[in-house]
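Lab notes, practical 5.
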Amino acid sequence: MHAADGRCRNADKKRYLRQSVRLTGLSTPSFQTCIDNFQYIHAAFGRLVPDGGLEPFDPLTFLNHPCMDIATRYYTSRREDPTGTAIPFLSEVDPNGALQAMVTDDHFHGIDNQVLYFTLTDQIRNQKGELAHR
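Output from the prediction step:
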């Protein structure tokens, strides 16, 4: 179902909309340590849930380097979180308001859906003169 302006309002499709990022350390030892730690955490969770209740942990590769895909959905269902607080989309994520227009009583954009973007720049320094992030 589409609105007159062409935006999709179908809840079945809306619940799958997400933003994601693929990270790789290009086989650096520090990134491999991160992958190893994720495998350790996954194994620990695996001991706490019934068999088949946890998807297998299988890191992807990018140009033959291990990588991680990280994603969050834009919306949460009220059935999953009946008391969650809706927050507006950041203008960097939704500059034209298309995602905000899809918020309904059944699906909302909450703090668990929000992704914050940081950048390191030498233009920003803290009170000690050290580089800071924003």
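Observations recorded by the TA: Strands lie at 18-24, 60-62, 65-73, 76-77, 107-108, 120-125, 131-133. The CA atoms of residues 13 and 134 lie 33 Å apart.
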